[in-house]
Amino acid sequence: MPPKKTTTTGGGGGGERGQIGGGDANLKQKSPAEFFQDNKGIAGFENAGKSLYTTLREFIENALDAAEHIGVLPQVDVLVEEVTLTQYETMIGLDAHVRKDDTLYDDFETEKARAKRLEREAKVEMQLEKAAAANANKGKKGGGRGNANSSKGEEKKSYFKITVKDNGKGMEHSDIPNMLGRVLSGTKYGVRQTRGKFGLGSKMALIWSKQTTGLPIRVRSAQPGQNFVSEYVLDIDIEKNAPNVHKEEKKPNTTKWHGAELSVTIEGNWTSHRQYVLAYLRQLAIVTPYAALGFRYISSHAAGSAAARNQDIQLHFARRAEVMPPLPRATKYHPSAAKENQLLVKDLLSNTREKTLSGFFNKEFTCINREHANRLSRELGAGFSASMHPKNVSDKQGARIQQLLASARFSDPSGECLSPAGEYNLRLGVMKELGPDWIASYASPALACGGHPLIVEACVSLGGRDVKPGFNVFRFANRIPLLFEGGADVATRCVQRLNWTTYKIDKNNDKIGVFVSIVSTKIPFKGTSKEYIGDENAEIAEAVDKAIKQCAAQLRGKIVRAQALKDRRARKKALTKYVPDCCNAIFTMIASAADADTLPHERARNYDEKEMLWPVDVQWEEEATQKARTREITAEILQKRLEECVEKIDNEEALEFSMQQNKDGLKQDVFLNPFSSFAHEYEPELRPGESGVAFRLLKKARLIA
Ligand SMILES: Nc1ncnc2c1ncn2[C@@H]1O[C@H](COP(=O)(O)OP(=O)(O)OP(=O)(O)O)[C@@H](O)[C@H]1O
User: Fold this and answer.
1) Is this prediction's pTM over 0.90?
2) Beta bridge partners of residue 316, listed in sequence order
3) Which of 335, 497, 609, 658 is deepest in the core (most CB within 10 A)?
4) Residue 391 — φ and ψ, nearest 5°?
5) DNA topoisomerase VI subunit B transducer domain: from which residue to which, for each copy (predicted)?
């Protein structure tokens, strides 16, 4: 059957629009915007509550990306304002009608009804919290998403105006409509670690806003050094997947501000997702301690009323570190990317500026040096040469190159292009947020995952405030906290698989905090809503598993040491307890010998007078008696000596235990934050000694100070 000639029909609307002419009447086309409008759930917009959460998340993550991109310490201010129906009607220009009889309307609520509703919502919220905690515990797939849905049917519609302001790089004036009004457009598609990746998030917020309130997005933006502020009001033409600009202006930038301020009005559900928003912010503060985050929620109650005071929220997560981790850098693909993507080699060959095949291997991929590139060129066999021009590589030859790269062995990438949270930052955040009794951390070396460098960092803590017994898993990807779908995530699965008893940790009763942070130039999220990373990727699962095990092993050492210390203390306490009684008994005996008319040797039956040799016990008794007579031995002296003896035994035991535990002597890891923005290459180490602490810095394996 010959292929059908297809032409796109324009306009039309509804079911007819997008039909392809000449063939089956059911054959239609959809724009990306339409696709995502119909499948909002895959982008995290499945219901009003989740959409409110995702909108905030997308805006905040864009704000952090924008500030970090220009190396500025992020300052992000978030405002969520509840909008009453009347305010909403004013916004959409329906305020001409002044209601005469409020009770006629569907949204009318008496004070009593309102109080009842708030009570009901609070109950639902509590149930949600409980269910979310239980789900995270049991590792059930679905997280809070399903729960959040369950109450939806009963809720009245609520509207919220969300405004997020940052101090980032801003956007080029002419790019703003496309950046925010065309689905699948963005600046983060390259091989670089960023929180955003798909070019979708803020457009989804706009699509949700358009669908639920019909209101456009308002944007203010200025780039560093720009003398004007771009102001836009725009929405999206969903059928065409194109921006629809309502207003465009350039205003003088009198304050030399740079950054962006985005504002949308959407339907949302604060009650069901308040906890998630607050947990998200708290966890964001853990992995981004160098950012200052301000959050304000203003309810629709009359300002100043008691009800408003109860519901309004103002939070400030202060900056705890003045140093940003090294900024992520754009990098090239690892050659193993050819395994995943058959088209990659073809794409790279047609876009390369290199003039030779070996130059192509060397410059378009990481982990291939010149010599390696020449060896690969030779390995390709007949028809190839190191000096051939990449543009002359045929499709068939391209397939051969792809095949070779997919099957050859390459070293792991260095990971220098990545910006992990850092063990120091993770520990700092965990200690600040949870105040655990014990904490251990580990950072994996970089590995190649699907052709992208990837680093896993983990912290495991025991004890702390607000931590429930059992597992408390916290997940981060490219420094984004992941709150939903926890049960299916690789971190949760690894935690469940681990045999914690081996590490002397009671998985049911100990308060275990597990923090896993993964950074990569491409995080293999399941779905575009960036909720979780699947467990089926063996490389990631292995790396996460190893990181958690390393932390657990460190904790095991601490637990064993603490147990030994506890045992020693108990023994010392028991010994010390009997010291006074022992002293009294011994001294009474010595004192009665000292008071006697004869000395012990005179009473001893087997005293050899000629040799003046006494049995040892008599000799001891003789000496003690003499000393008691001259008051060199008193009850107090005896007690002091016995106490010293207990102390000495205790110290010797402690030292022996430490030497057994740690063949290298007594040592303790410490974490130092570098002053500069560059990661230092030194590992500090503390060695407690008899009368102080020795501190040294180790460069790789070599001692430098
Ligand atoms: N606050 C901001 N400051 C500067 N640029 C921004 C800001 N918000 C959005 N942008 C620009 O708009 C683009 C599109 O943003 P959008 O949220 O739609 O997708 P993304 O962040 O690229 O990817 P993802 O969908 O994975 O979040 C971004 O790539 C960025 O260049």
Assistant:
1) no
2) 294
3) 335
4) -70, -20
5) 413-570
